[in-house]
Specification:
single chain; 481 residues; alpha/beta; six-stranded antiparallel sheet; five-stranded mixed barrel; 30 strands; 22% helix
């Protein structure tokens, strides 16, 4: 059997899980439940590991998330085949075309196991078995979708109708009879009663050569853009940057619309592995550990006469009386209260925030950087207080601010600080002061995180008041705002 190349798509923004999921820190990086040791992406990385006979994964993500992806790979102890940076969003069909070209460079008979980075699979062992079984089907030139047996008349999923069983595969794989868009309630109930319809999981086992041949036949501009963007790609700190102009020429279209709904090579393999796409707060509530009244609680909460609610609070105490079927998500800078049956509409709130240019849709008060993170603790006229967390080996850029001075107090670890031409170690309970227009740099030479309280004072405190002369992470100015 051909080698199986995991392809993980990590470009989503997860708007329907706002306010926890935000543009700069979307749901695939979040640990939603108490005691959850890995993120959705971290879990996805562990499903098809090299030690189980799979190839090293190919990941596709956008530029803003590249260091978050790298950190998840480091935690998983995996070296990827490639981390591909998509310069513009062009949906799944062009991204998978790029992955197919990369896999075929190494393996002329490559099978792609394509999966999103933010789905839940409860039984990873059975999932890997299904992938291997689907790869056998794909090796015959097929493009295999995984179908999920419906458990309810869900109107938020696309459906696939099973056709005749494919010979030679023991009744495990079938032709695709038809595709159906997200149905209304009555239609979904008819699909459920029919028994031959399955939810479209968005997970595929693809013969790479077949996929590219079908792309060439059905959407030739995608293949042209994928080849050109890859041919003109550049290496940057272990990331593969696709050429922006070439990739932007690709049509913005999903694999379903571009290929699967038109090809004669499509097959479906039903799968029962405890799948959930976690596409909304209600679907997250369904898989969350709940008490005897159906409530999930994370953080501080006191619930009285309350049932079937999802309550997440990161700081303040949440109290409820006489309510049910609510989603309550309380973060330091945003509060969501929603009817559990209306959680698909959370994306409408995010769209309104975008239209109003509000930062709450894009970033948390805690902003992640490749060196660690900073978190805004307090802000007022002419001052701002932040917590800086610098991971071992992390280093901020050499920088200067025109409009603010900074006072750094070390509360954990030992920091290496450069101010002008002077360099010093600043230990716990020691501090330094940096005047406006002084060049300075902070780094962590130790083996434990450095934490610093930063007090900014000045007439303008925006993140764009910064000049850089050296940045080991090769970031562009807009990436630090």
């Amino acid at each position: 059997m051909s080698n199986i190349h995991p392809v993980i798509l990590s470009g989503g923004s997860g708007t329907r899980l706002w306010p926890l999921s935000r543009a700069m820190y979307p749901k695939q990086f979040i640990r939603f439940f108490n005691g959850q040791s890995t993120s959705f992406l971290g879990t996805a990385l562990g499903r098809l590991p090299p030690h189980a006979g799979f190839e090293n994964p190919i990941l596709l993500c956008n530029n803003d998330h590249r260091f978050l992806v790298r950190e998840e790979l480091d935690r998983a102890g995996l070296e990827p085949r490639a981390i591909v940076l998509e310069p513009v969003a062009r949906n799944t069909a062009p991204a998978i075309a790029v992955a197919a070209l990369i896999a075929l460079e190494q393996d002329p008979d490559a099978i792609l196991a394509v999966m999103p980075s933010d789905h839940v699979i409860e039984d990873a062992v059975v999932f890997a078995e299904h992938i291997r079984r689907a790869a056998e089907v794909a090796a015959t030139g097929k493009l295999v979708l995984f179908g999920i047996k419906p458990t309810e008349a869900h109107t938020g999923y696309g459906y696939i109708k099973c056709g005749q069983a494919l010979s030679g595969f023991g009744g495990h794989a079938f032709d695709v009879a038809s595709f159906a868009e997200k149905p209304d309630r009555a239609t979904a109930e008819s699909y459920l009663a029919d028994g031959s319809y399955f939810w479209n999981s968005g997970i595929f086992a693809l013969n790479a050569k077949t996929y590219l041949a079908e792309i060439k036949r059905l959407e030739p501009k995608i293949l042209e853009a994928a080849r050109a963007s890859l041919a003109n790609a550049s290496e940057d700190l272990g990331f593969l940057r696709l050429d922006r102009a070439a990739f932007a020429a690709a049509p913005n279209i999903s694999i379903d619309y571009a290929v699967m709904e038109k090809t004669r090579a499509a097959a479906i393999l039903p799968m029962n592995v405890g799948w959930n796409d976690v596409g909304s707060w209600s679907s997250l509530w369904e898989i969350a550990p709940r008490d005897d009244k159906g409530n999930f609680i994370k953080g501080e909460a006191v619930l009285e006469d309350t049932s079937d609610c999802y309550v997440h609070s990161e700081r303040a105490l949440v109290s409820t009386i006489g309510v049910n079927d609510l989603i309550i998500v309380n973060t330091p800078d945003a509060l969501l209260i929603a009817d559990k049956n209306r959680t698909q509409d959370v994306s409408k709130i995010v769209q309104r925030l975008k239209q109003s240019n509000r930062k709450e849709q894009e970033q948390h008060l805690r902003n992640y950087r490749p060196w660690g993170y900073f978190e805004t603790l307090n802000i007022g006229p002419r001052f701002q207080v932040k917590l800086l967390h610098v991971k071992p080996g992390g280093q901020l850029s050499m920088q200067m601010h025109h409009h603010r001075s900074e006072h750094w107090i070390v509360v954990q670890g030992t920091a290496q600080v450069s101010i002008g031409d002077k360099e010093q170690l600043v230990r716990e309970n020691e501090s330094v002061y940096i005047f406006a227009t002084q060049w300075h740099r902070l780094s962590n030479p130790g083996k434990v995180p450095v934490e610093i309280i930063e007090v900014q004072i000045g007439s303008y405190l925006g993140e764009d008041d910064i000049m850089r002369t050296d940045d080991i992470y090769n970031r562009q100015p807009e990436e630090t705002k």
